[in-house]
Design the sequence.
């Protein structure tokens, strides 16, 4: 994302009480999104659920979108690092499994659906969601870079396009066609992306 951390509400992360306040507010934000979606994200109610003064929440986060943006940054920071199974096939399967597990988790799946829905009509929320995925793709790009170094991929393969190809079918099922992605779907998505990459689909 283009904004500097100091310019975005809620992104300062000093220790002590300030960090505890941020954690409590983001936990309350996540619970609210999971239970009622973006329309239910009321600043006063989040403050009450977090046990934090309303003035503090309005001053630091500014709006419901500010809460969502900071929640996405926090989720990116807390996400698991990229897998290193020793093969590209194994790494892509791990990536697909992680995406599927997140989308089918009763709480996290609901949070992502709520944020994706909000991003469809709110530009700031869309930027925050895009920033989250850019961060995650960049963190996983190393699996393709390692594979290229091992000779498993054509030179110049775009790691971000490869990773998008793994997760796209799973998001389509979960968000567009409203189907719950299965482990078999995750395996298929990883295998299809790997076959396409080996054929040069993501190389110049």
Sequence:
């Amino acid at each position: 994302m283009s904004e500097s951390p100091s310019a975005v509400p809620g992104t300062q992360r000093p220790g002590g009480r300030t960090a505890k306040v941020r954690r409590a507010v983001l936990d309350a934000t996540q619970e609210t999104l999971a239970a009622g979606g973006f329309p239910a994200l009321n600043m006063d109610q989040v403050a009450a659920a977090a046990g934090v003064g309303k003035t503090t929440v309005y001053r630091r986060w500014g709006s419901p979108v500010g809460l969502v943006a900071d929640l996405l940054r926090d989720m990116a920071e807390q996400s698991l690092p990229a897998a290193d199974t020793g093969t590209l096939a194994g790494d892509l399967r791990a990536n697909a499994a992680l995406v599927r597990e997140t989308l089918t988790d009763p709480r996290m799946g609901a949070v992502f659906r709520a944020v994706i829905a909000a991003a469809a009509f709110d530009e700031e929320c869309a930027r925050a969601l895009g920033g989250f995925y850019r961060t995650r793709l960049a963190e996983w790009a190393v699996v393709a870079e390692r594979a290229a170094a091992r000779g498993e991929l054509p030179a110049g393969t775009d790691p971000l396009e490869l990773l998008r190809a793994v997760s796209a079918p799973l998001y389509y099922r979960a968000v567009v066609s409203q189907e719950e992605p299965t482990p078999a779907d995750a395996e298929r998505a990883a295998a299809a992306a790997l076959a396409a990459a080996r054929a040069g689909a993501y190389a110049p």
Q: What stands out?
A: The radius of gyration is 18 Å. The chain is about 70% helix and 0% strand. The longest helix spans residues 123-149.
